[in-house]
Design goal:
This protein has 267 residues and is an alpha/beta fold. The protein has two domains: 201 residues, 2-enoyl-CoA Hydratase, Chain A, domain 1, CATH 3.90.226.10; 47 residues, Lyase 2-enoyl-coa Hydratase, Chain  A, domain 2. Helix content is 46%, strand content 15%. The radius of gyration is 19 Å and the shape is globular. The mean pLDDT is 97. The structure holds ligand T3D. Ligand T3D binds next to helix 2 and strand 6.
Length: 267
């Protein structure tokens, strides 16, 4: 696949669409252009049936340092036009976070280095997080007098609980990969030498599973935070009616009965 992005590098292999944030000199800080390109890449990931798992990672030594503060520096100069934070978040970050959460395919954050500010928020919005021992997470917002955004006030509480989320958000200190694993914030920490291969193995495994069932599972998990027991039971029944009608469900049951490995098509 030809790469038509200037802030991202992408590959599609064995059903795995890898999106690499590619501004290593700025620690892959989020620029306006990166926002536009990420939007396009995630839209394509949803549309293209050959894509069955998405990996989000960073080039160089960082995952992402969050908002590019250089890009908005004029807003802070004497007489500069102040940033319209509400509009900036609504138009850029919020649409991307919504897209990741509502994408009906598994999204894995392969956290190769520091993830700070909205960079951390993007990792938290993914379904799974795998990182190297060098990775770290910094809720850098407080260090510049802002509140955590891009849904981190929700996702971080979901992943680690209120007390740990409050400590990370209020102190703005670096959380190591080891502690992130202990807190349940990341699923796996893998030595750097094996990182790429482990990410590939995990992503290809996800890509070979029943994609529609995974998408529907994601819907149910997303809904769980606000649902009552009765709501959730009903929602599961509703979604299962769709999952039960997929080719992959039939294939899964037939393979079980015929004592063979299933071959899932994603349909
Ligand atoms: O509406 C809105 O815009 C609000 C939205 C907010 C979303 C946000 O993400 S707010 C939070 C923004 N991010 C930050 O505040 C993080 C700032 N960076 C850091 O705290 C540290 O750089 C890191 C913890 C990420 C990494 O530290 P370290 O020691 O490994 O690297 P460093 O030496 O600080 O940075 C290396 C270079 O990257 C350096 O440039 P230089 O001096 O080599 O030319 C540094 O300026 C640059 N860099 C790091 N972060 C950013 C950045 N450049 C632009 N924007 C950045 N966010």
């Amino acid at each position: 696949m030809a790469d038509s992005y200037s802030t991202l590098a992408t590959t599609l292999e064995n059903g795995v669409f890898t999106i690499t944030l590619n501004r290593p000199d700025a620690l892959n800080a989020y620029s306006r252009e990166m926002g536009v390109e990420l939007g396009a890449a995630f839209r394509m990931a949803q549309r293209d049936d050959s894509i069955r798992c998405i990996v989000l990672t960073g080039a160089g030594r960082a995952f992402s340092a969050g908002q590019d503060l250089q890009e908005i520096k004029d807003c802070y100069s004497e007489g500069g036009q102040p940033l319209d934070f509400g509009a900036h978040l609504r138009n850029q970050y919020n649409t991307l976070i919504t897209r990741i959460r509502s994408l009906e395919k598994p999204v894995v954050a392969a956290v190769n280095g520091v993830a700070a500010g909205a960079g951390a928020s993007f990792a938290f919005a993914c379904d799974l997080r795998i990182c190297t021992p060098k990775a770290s997470f910094v809720m850098a917002f407080v260090n510049i007098g802002l509140i955590p955004d891009s849904a981190a006030t929700l996702t971080l509480v979901q992943h680690v609980g209120y007390a740990r989320a409050a400590e990370l958000c209020m102190l703005g200190e670096k959380l190591s990969a080891e502690d992130a694993l202990r807190f349940g914030l990341v699923n796996r920490v893998v030595e750097e030498d094996h990182f790429e291969a482990s990410v590939r193995t995990l992503a290809e495994k996800l890509a070979a599973l029943p994609t529609r069932a995974i998408g529907l599972t994601k819907r149910a998990l997303n809904r769980a935070w606000t649902a009552t027991l009765a709501d959730q039971l009903e929602y599961e029944a509703f979604l299962q009616a769709t999952a039960g009608g997929t080719q992959d469900h039939t294939e899964g049951v037939r393979a079980f009965l015929e004592k063979r490995q299933p071959t899932f098509s994603g349909q």
